[in-house]
Amino acid sequence: MHGLGNDFIVFDARRDERNDYSRTAKLLCGRRTGIGADGLIAVCNSNICDTRMRIINSDGSEAEMCGNGIRVFSKYVYERGIVNKPEFEVETLAGVMRPKLTISAGTVTGITVDMGKPSFDRADIPMTGRGTFIMQELKVLNKTFKATSMLLGVPHTVVFVQDVRNEDIVRYGRDIEQNELFPKGTNVNFVHVTDEHSIEVRTFERGCGATLACGTGTSASAVACALSGLTGRKVDAHLKLGILNIEWLDDGRVTMSGPAEAVFDGEIDPSLLEGRSYEPGS
């Protein structure tokens, strides 16, 4: 499944909730030696919500949350009867998420998710130093960017550029992700403000690399733009394969609306994974 090109292998893990899917993610997410994906999404049981989502990046690390992932997850659990209502609660490592589905003839055609409130405190992100990091200079390799960092589900750093299409996202993204300012790493979002109501976003994701879309990153990007007066609080965020609608509400919460798509169904024979090595750098 995918959300605007951010793709995932989704499976029902309610009968086999092992603690470690790291090796499985590395094997299956390889684009040349596996199925190919940015990560795994496991549907799990929850004691506090209707259901629970785990997301494991392609490098084997587990993420707290994922904006495109939660939309994909929501479509999966509704259309397969795991939940049977258009609004429900999902337990994640970043807290409780509340998707609201648009449904036509039993098919989920759109998902709006309450992403929660961003935190700009460095200790929450986490980020070294004290106070906030809003529209400050960030020196990377041979360039100096204006950037803003926050926690919105996961750590995000929003970098403002003139042209997201020509910026070297992999080169600069990897350096910022691993910068000593961020002891647990950071997702990196390169943003160009088109006008008061629209932005362009490209993301280098922690644990994945450059991806076609990032829901939490796009949400963080919209917040950073509004916070600095570059846009209003509601924007259309243009990604490579489509648009996410982001609104930073007056109460401080952020909503994200967008699509999710199923690509194919299949079965994996666990015995085929035994003894295999994974694709380095996938």
Which SSEs are present, and which pair or pack?
Layout: E1 2-3, E2 6-12, H1 22-29, E3 39-44, E4 51-57, E5 62-63, H2 67-79, E6 90-92, E7 95-104, E8 107-116, E9 136-140, E10 143-152, E11 154-160, H3 169-177, E12 187-195, E13 198-205, E14 209-211, H4 215-227, E15 234-239, E16 242-248, E17 254-258
Describe what this molecule looks like in 3D.
The protein is an alpha+beta fold and 282 residues long. It has 2 domains: 2-111 and 261-273, Diaminopimelate Epimerase, Chain A, domain 1 (Roll); 136-252, Roll (Diaminopimelate Epimerase, Chain A, domain 1). The protein contains 4 helices and 17 strands. It has a 17-stranded mixed beta sheet that branches. The two termini are 18 Å apart. 45% of the residues are buried. The mean pLDDT is 94.
